Amino acid sequence: MEVLLPINNHVIKSESLALRPESLENKTIGFLDGWGFRNADGKMSMYPLMRELKNVLIKKYKNINILWVLKDNEHFPAKEDEIKKILNADVIVNGEAI
Length: 98
Description:
By secondary structure, the chain is of the alpha/beta class. The protein is built from two helices and seven strands; from the N terminus they run E-E-E-E-E-H-E-H-E.
């Protein structure tokens, strides 16, 4: 597998996927939202699927924290400050398949 880092376009080769925690209990789940969704009240929200996943996780795990980072632009890699924020999470959800 090849992973392209969005900061400086270095290519890293990896034999396997990143490690997964055994449980999400007491973990911070980060959502890196590149699109954003405007609610009827005008407030920005996550991708609809990300929002639903967040709600499922909150119901399932009593002790999780949610970190939501909205990228400036969905068409470009995350900026360094956005990446620094999301790296505070134990698990990161980035994008969704439609």
